[in-house]
Amino acid sequence: MSIELHALRRIALTEEAGGAFATDVTGSATYLDLPFQEGTANLTLNLPELDAQVAQQRIDARNQIVFGPKSAELSVTVPLGATGVAAGDGSDSPAFDDQALLLLLKIVFGGANDENTGGDVTSAAASYQLIGSPAGWDGGESIGWVNSAGVFEARSVRGLAATTIQLKDQLSATPTASDVLYAGTTIHPTANPLTSIQMIVEGAEQDDRWLLMGGQVTSAPAITVALGEIPTISFTITFANWASEPSAAITVADYGTFTPVAYTGSLRAINGVASGSISGVCLDAATINLAMNSPVYTPVRSGCGTNTIKRYRRNRAVPFCTLTAHIPYEDTSWFTERDDGEYYGLTIQIGTVAGFVVLLEVPKAQVTNVQLIDEGGLAYQAVTFSATTDSFTTQADDADIQYAAFRLHFL
Question: Could you give the CA distance from residue 340 to residue 166 in angstroms, rounded to a whole number?
C-alpha cells in the first residue's frame, strides 16, 4: 500500500477554443503549469445522487440511487506574480499564452493585448505626453519608464495621436530623448468570451490524475493586496466534465520566468484624467480592499451540450469591482468628493523593476462611501470607489479595451 503526500500536486491548463467546449484535447494541446500556492487547490469531482423516491414497504429500505450529470469544481489561489520578461527597446511584450497565469486570466476576462514592442523616447513635451519610437501603443494599454532613481514607473495610456503617446497620469519627471519605454501585456474584460478552461490535476499517487473539461469561473476572482506581502488571486472554476487520466508519475512542473513580487505600496488616484495633464496622487493607504464582482459566468443549459451545459456565458454583475482604501483622516475632502459624485482613475503598482511589475487599473470609479475608522489606533478613513466603464481613454484598437472597467498590466 502506497501512502503519498497530498501537498505534492501539479495543475496544468490549456484553452478550449470556441466551439470546442469540453472537448478532450490532451492529444494535441500544450498545457502550461500553473504556479499555484501549495495547499490551496481543492478539487471536487461531482456525480450527483438522484433519488427517484419510489415507495418502499420496509422502514429502512431505500431504492437504488441514480447518478446525475458529471461536473467538477476547483478552487485555487495563485500568487499575482510578474512575467520576468522586460520588453525594452526592440523587445516584444510578454505573450499571454507563454505563461499559465496570463493564459488563465485571458480566458476568464476574455481579452489580452500582447502585441506591443518596447521603444524609446524621441522627445517629450511633458511628463504625460511622449513621442516614442516605434509608435505602437494604444489607449488602454500600458507603458513603463525608469526614473533617475532607478525606479520603474508604470502608467496607463490614454491614447495615441500620431506618434505622441498620451498618458493618463504624469510621470515623476519629463523623460529625455533615448530613454527606454517598456511595453506591457494587458488583460481586460470582454462582453462575451467564447473560450473555456481545460485542466489536468495530478497528485503524487500515479492514479491521482484527472482531466477537467469545459471550465469557467462561476464566482468572481478574488484579489488580495497587502502591504509587504505577495498579492494573490483566487479562482473558483466549475467544469462541465471530468475523466480519470491514465496512470503515470506526477509531472515535474515548469513555471518558466514567472516571478512573485511583493507589494510595497503604490496606490495612485488620478482626478480629472479626461484632461490628460493631471498628476496622480500616491495615497498613503495602510490597507487596500479590492472586491471583485466580475467576471462571473452562468452555464447555458442544453440537452445538446456536455452534461447539460452547452457553454458558459458571462453575466452582468456591477460594479465590476470596488476599491476601499484606508488613508489618514486629515480633513473633509473625501466627503466632499463623495457628495460631488467625483470620479477617479486608480492604479496599484506591484513591483518596481522592469519585467517584474504588475499594474492593476480601475480606470474610472466614483467615490461612493467615506467612513471614519480606527486603523491600529490611528484616525483614518475608509474611502470606497465603485468602478464603471472607462470614458477617459480616448483611442484604442477596440471597444473592449477602451471601455474596460478593469485592467491588469504586466510589464
Answer: 27
